[in-house]
Design goal:
The protein has nine helices and two strands; from the N terminus they run αααββαααααα. The chain has about 230 residues and is an all-alpha fold.
């Protein structure tokens, strides 16, 4: 369906920062770029507006939402809420196709890191977590995750959190224990590892992006009831 294809194209352009935060979305220009009429384009813009990616401006063209640092912190808090449970479910489901896909994504992380293609590295990282949430088989959880726009976090970044003089295998190695827990059908360990992994990402965005948690936000990233994994013991 043309409207669906247009919607996905626009969403990808926003995520990849081909459409910058705050940029005016001129329909004539976008129609020409995407090769579509204004009807599917307008339908797509309305849909993106309902998802919070596009902002309607009175008496003017819509524009890409300019997310604040607070928005990014909230996105990561939603990751911490949703991804560990999704990872638990993915481990319980134990789909061999998922495990193969995740291992390939880890290889791609290393490949893009060696080539210093940081935008692609960030994209593959997001795809890794997206694949796990999708494999949870939990429709409403996946829908909530999609609406959080996790990929948008990279929009505020110059990828300094990836460019840190570390070995190119570093990022992939940080994901391998999660794959192992899923492969071993260990839901509790998978959930705990996912929590720790995302918490580490929160620490990175504070250090690299200058997004510091306020006293009111810090409890969002605590989970008193989490089950410790073997690495914690």
């Amino acid at each position: 369906m043309l409207a669906e294809k247009t919607y996905k194209s626009l969403k990808t352009m926003i995520y990849r920062r081909e459409l910058e935060p705050g940029e005016r979305l001129v329909e004539r220009k976008l129609s020409r770029k995407l090769g579509v009429s204004r009807v599917p384009l307008r339908e797509s813009l309305v849909r993106l507006e309902s998802e919070g990616l596009v902002e309607r401006v009175p008496n003017g063209p819509s524009r890409v939402m300019d997310f604040s640092k607070t928005d990014v912190v909230e996105m990561y808090s939603m990751r911490l809420l949703l991804e560990p449970f999704a990872t638990r479910l993915a481990a319980a489901n134990h789909e061999p196709a998922l495990i193969r896909h995740l291992k390939l994504l880890c290889k791609a992380m290393t490949r893009f890191s060696k080539a210093e293609k940081w935008a692609e590295m960030d994209r593959v990282d997001c795809e890794f977590h997206h694949a796990i949430v999708e494999a949870s088989g939990h429709k409403m959880l996946f829908q909530a995750y999609e609406n959080c726009h996790i990929q948008i976090g990279g929009m505020l970044s110059n990828f300094s959190h990836l460019v840190a003089g570390q070995p190119p295998e570093t990022n992939a190695l940080q994901h391998l224990p999660i794959i192992d827990a899923i492969e071993q059908r260990d839901p509790a360990r998978a959930e705990s590892l996912a929590f720790d992994h995302i918490k580490m990402s929160v620490d990175k965005i504070q250090e690299c992006f200058g997004i510091w948690l306020t006293p009111a936000q810090k409890p969002w990233f605590e989970h008193a009831g989490r089950t410790p994994c073997s690495a914690d013991l």
